[in-house]
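Retro notes (design track)

What went well: tokenization of the new backbones is finally stable.
What didn't: we kept losing track of which sequence belonged to which structure.
Fix going forward: every design gets posted as structure first, then sequence, in one message. First example under the new rule, 189 residues:
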């Protein structure tokens, strides 16, 4: 698997750095992501608030704490079965809670802001998605950031399946470099 740090600075969108997850027995994708965050130069982060958008896979306590340690803001997808300190799951908020409310997840010392929305899937199906933030955004703005995050995720799924990244680019560093060069050549031609 590929763990990638993708920067958006104003109108610029730049794949900044990446690591390859080699499977069990090696660093986890969350640990690799924390290493990538540690490599971001302070010159890019000291003037503006930094918002880290991350996939549901990175909705772990360790990742959220790594982002908070740098005084950045995390916006992370969260599975609906994640437990809150009051014993309920996030999915139960859909019926009884309100978007933008603060919740405490089990194992997390600071409150998180939560929101949700219905993501359209194929064949007119919808899927309830949850997004949390370490910063107290409004529910509507948090949903907008969450949708941005899923748009970026959709881009990477597209390059994985339509441009064969999953065939040879995710296994080795050399394979990834070859894939990037081939993609650049195809773009230029």
């Amino acid at each position: 698997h590929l763990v990638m740090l993708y920067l958006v600075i104003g109108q610029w969108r730049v794949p900044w750095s990446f690591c390859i997850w080699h499977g069990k027995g090696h660093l986890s994708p969350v640990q690799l992501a924390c290493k990538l965050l540690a490599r971001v130069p302070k010159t890019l982060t000291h003037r503006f608030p930094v918002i880290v958008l991350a996939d549901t896979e990175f909705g772990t306590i360790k990742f959220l704490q790594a982002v908070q340690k740098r005084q950045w803001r995390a916006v992370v997808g969260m599975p609906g079965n994640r437990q809150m300190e009051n014993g309920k799951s996030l999915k139960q908020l859909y019926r009884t809670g309100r978007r933008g409310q603060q919740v405490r997840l089990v194992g997390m010392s600071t409150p998180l802001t939560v929101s949700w929305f219905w993501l359209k899937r194929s064949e007119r199906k919808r899927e309830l998605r949850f997004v949390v933030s370490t910063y107290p955004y409004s529910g509507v703005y948090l949903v907008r950031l969450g949708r941005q995050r899923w748009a970026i995720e959709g881009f990477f799924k597209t390059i994985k399946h339509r441009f064969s990244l999953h065939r040879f680019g995710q296994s080795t560093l050399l394979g990834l470099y070859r894939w990037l060069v081939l993609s650049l050549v195809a773009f230029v031609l």
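Added context from the reviewer: The radius of gyration is 18 Å.
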